[in-house]
Specification:
Distance between the termini: 19 Å
Structural class: alpha+beta
Order of helices and strands: HHHHEEHHHHEEHHEEEEEE
Number of helices: 10
Strand content: 5-15%
Strand order of the largest sheet: 1-2
Shape: globular
């Protein structure tokens, strides 16, 4: 098992333990209420809203990175739905203000910033906290990424920015697995019935709902799990005046570097899907042997790499990465010094599997 897979397993198990606590409390309702990190509003439901365990959030909304900007997030933290400011408005981790860390993770993994806001509240109640909470692990290891148990956590994963990155990567990995293989590593798939930890039969309508159940396989009606995610999402969408993209529910477009199973899934002119040992999960790319890589401000920068194929080489576009803060897909690493096709005097660090 890879180190990243181990980290994902740790964060999922840790988050499960946190969110299943209300279910385990059983008849000790008063004790559970005294210890909860949630606000009362988090557990109240709008009578006009109807929960569907088979569709938590539609794919277009789940992967919408342009519907909410950093200014809106800053204003949201200053004026939360709980009628007070959130300490995250002025908090920084590893030099990143909270709102910048949220937007960075959202853009890197192409996931709606609201997903991160909702998760921070449902797991550790951070949005409802006016002051920095105790113990510090509630913030610095909010998603328990890198934590083997309550007392042992990896120092290199401390900080809200790194925890947000870990969450984003886990969710994007599940979306990529569904696109490439039809299901997540845990077997969650659109239109396929599975059973949750709390014994509910669920048939996800779409890939975003399947990814959410992969991360947290709990319905938790009225208490926790994906019901809680859905309920807080509704409240935050109202507070942010968020409007789902027109045509919600459609498949998100795959870009260079994304997972794929065939060329048509690489939804841009000239899209190519590589499926071999160097491209685990499939790799969307572009033939840049005759023209430059396509670039778009809403997607990561790409580089025309010299791509060896047997005894010949050609140009294939790969995602540019930062060796000091790599953010490549699972199965790929940030490889430095990759030569540019047709001009070996130039090179770049790219996400690749040599």
């Amino acid at each position: 098992m890879s180190s990243f897979s181990s980290k994902i397993r740790v964060v999922v198990l840790g988050t499960l333990a946190l969110l299943l606590a209300p279910l385990a409390a059983g008849g000790c309702a008063k004790a559970a209420e005294e210890k909860t990190v949630l606000q009362a509003e988090d557990l109240t439901t709008d009578p006009e809203s109807k929960f569907d365990k088979n569709e938590i959030v539609d794919p277009a909304s789940f992967t919408d990175t342009v519907g909410i900007d950093v200014g809106q997030i800053d204003n949201f933290l200053r004026h939360t739905p709980y009628k007070r400011r959130c300490f995250l408005e002025t908090y920084q981790s590893n030099g990143f203000p909270a709102e910048a860390a949220i937007v960075n993770a959202a853009n890197r993994y192409r996931i709606n910033p609201m997903v991160f806001l909702v998760r921070m509240e449902m797991v550790q109640g951070l949005i409802g906290e006016q002051f920095y909470p105790f113990p510090p692990a509630r913030v610095e290891y909010v998603f328990r990424c890198g934590c083997a148990n309550a007392d042992t956590c990896a120092p290199e994963l401390a900080g809200l920015d790194r925890q947000l990155d870990c969450l984003g990567r886990a969710l994007r990995t599940s979306l990529d697995e569904i696109k490439a293989n039809g299901q997540t590593a845990g077997g969650w798939a659109p239109t396929r019935e599975s059973v949750t930890v709390d014994g509910e039969k669920v048939t996800p309508v779409d890939e975003s709902t399947a990814a959410l159940y992969q991360y947290m396989p709990v319905v938790g009606q009225g208490k926790t799990g994906n019901w809680l995610f859905w309920n807080i999402w509704q409240k935050y969408a109202t507070a942010l005046d968020y409007q789902a993209p027109i045509g919600g529910g459609g498949q998100p477009s795959a870009w260079i570097g994304d997972a794929c199973a065939s060329d048509p899934l690489c939804d841009y002119p000239g899209g190519i899907c590589i499926r071999d040992d160097r491209a685990p999960g499939g790799l969307c790319t572009f033939d840049c042997s005759k023209q430059d890589c396509p670039n778009d401000p809403d997607h990561p920068l790409s580089f025309c790499a010299n791509f060896n194929s047997g005894t010949t080489s050609t140009g294939r576009c790969l995602i540019v990465c930062n060796p000091n803060a790599p953010a490549c897909r699972q199965g790929y690493k940030c490889v430095e010094g990759v030569a540019k096709f047709g001009d070996p005097s130039k090179s770049a660090a790219v996400c690749f599997n040599q």
